Amino acid sequence: MVNIVTKIFTSALKNRLIQWIDHAGVLPDEQAVLLANTTFDLKKKLTVLRDYCSINSLSVNLEKTKCVHFRRGGPRERTNLLYGDNPVDWSEEYVYLGVSFMGLSLGLTAARAAAQRARTASGAAISALASICTESWEGTLRIYDSIVATTLLYASHIWGLCYLDILEQSQLQFFKRLLLHPLGTPSAELKHELAMSNVKVRVLRATLKWIRKLLDMRDHRIPKICFYRLLQLSKNPRSDPKYNWVTQLRLILDSFNAPISIWSNLTSAYWRSQIPSITKLYSAHLRLSDLDIIDPKHLVKYRFPDFWALALPTTL
């Protein structure tokens, strides 16, 4: 009886995977992903994948194929996995579409990697500014946005809600380096004097836009299913923010008293209408938080680079 059930399950899984591959046409992509609940489930899916590739004369690059055991803690999975007769390696970390994923399901590694890439991008941006001898503050900000910010904030709405301070420090390091300030220069004063647009606001805006896209998805889409499950778990007071993306967002929104009505009106149109006011409220909250810690007697002394004279914005 068990063998019959197993054969039925395998056959159904195989047919479903083949239909999905034929419909989506994504299997030949080297970035394809299989999700499994258990090691047994993963072995079955690897078998189905092998059979499909064999029938359709496709190959899998086993050197780039890794398995990651996502878990809260404890030892990682070490069960031997095979794709045909070839072993498939386990890995504690995998870079997927430019984002580092760790087995512990936290975004710290991705945040640190983004900060490191941003430091490299900062050097390229400052070199570009020096080579063109720009005299425009607006042009400087455009180069920062196009080279540094895009590198720093790539997919940050997914992994960065717990690490907004790391992202902000990377932003500040660029401007301190640009203005030849030591890294110990007070950050609040610098942000205020430059009327700086905080990267935290950009991450929140991207997060809200992502939820709007989730709400537009069909109900069978995995991102939408995960979102509603996380939303359900976030209603539990004991929900751990480390492992719940929605709880992380709730804490940010609660910190500046964002309207709670968004959680009771889960429609794309409503969330779209609320994004401007929520981000504006968050920006004002961050600005006031900086003002609370600024010493009015303390002035930031600017030393401008020799290659241009900045037209600094008027201090608000």
UniProtKB/TrEMBL annotation:
Which organism's genome codes for this protein? Cotesia congregata
Q: What is this protein called?
A: Reverse transcriptase domain-containing protein
* Organism superkingdom: Eukaryota
